[in-house]
Design a protein that fits this description.
Layout lengths: L6 H4 L5 E8 L2 E8 L4 H8 L18 E4 L2 E4 L12 E3 L13 H8 L9 H12 L9 H7 L11 H14 L5
Helix pairs in contact: 3-6
């Protein structure tokens, strides 16, 4: 027999705070638990499930999104900390017509993904650097350092390095 939860069992006793942010160009405002993680807010409140949750300790990088133009771990950020922030998720990367960003195309063309679980976090990490004005080292070692905060268990990174280099060359980004 299935037991239903009472109203008090369903709702958290955590205090709530009104939070407003821009997510993928759209302003959203919600009352959220002060303990809700940004990753949970994006996935469960907004339905943006492209942001993956892996380790929940900020180690694997699967939850990486852009927070005010810089890559950041959404599993280490409370939703209320993002109040007033501009958040971008993987859902914002392809254009309105569904055409892939050159970085996404490069991951596809270079076979830089297998299971794909780490891919959104990797793309958001690399994209934050591509869109900044900073010079990047596009040597194998430089790209590996850029990706060092994103873990992949499937690919061995060789094709990911190729994909980043291909996208960077296409966008005329960085230095060799």
């Amino acid at each position: 027999m299935k037991r239903s939860l009472s109203k008090t069992q369903q709702e958290s006793a955590d205090p709530k705070q009104r939070t407003r942010m821009t997510v993928n160009g759209e302003t959203v405002e919600r009352d959220v638990s002060v303990r809700m993680l940004l990753s949970d807010f994006l996935r469960h409140e907004l339905g943006l499930t492209g942001t993956h949750v892996g380790c929940e300790h900020g180690v694997c990088g699967a939850c990486t999104v852009m927070i005010n133009g810089r890559s950041g771990r959404s599993c280490l950020t409370f939703a209320v900390q993002a109040d007033g922030a501009d958040i971008r998720t993987i859902e914002s990367v392809a254009d309105e017509n569904g055409d892939l960003h050159p970085l996404q195309e490069a991951f596809r063309d270079c076979h830089a993904l297998q299971c794909g679980y780490c891919t959104p976090g990797m793309i958001m990490n690399v994209l934050s650097h591509m869109e900044s004005d900073e010079e990047m080292d596009l040597s194998d070692q430089g790209i590996r350092e850029l990706l060092s905060g994103n873990l992949c268990r499937c690919t061995g990174y060789a094709n990911i390095v190729k994909a980043v280099r291909q996208a960077a060359d296409k966008a005329n980004w960085g230095s060799a």
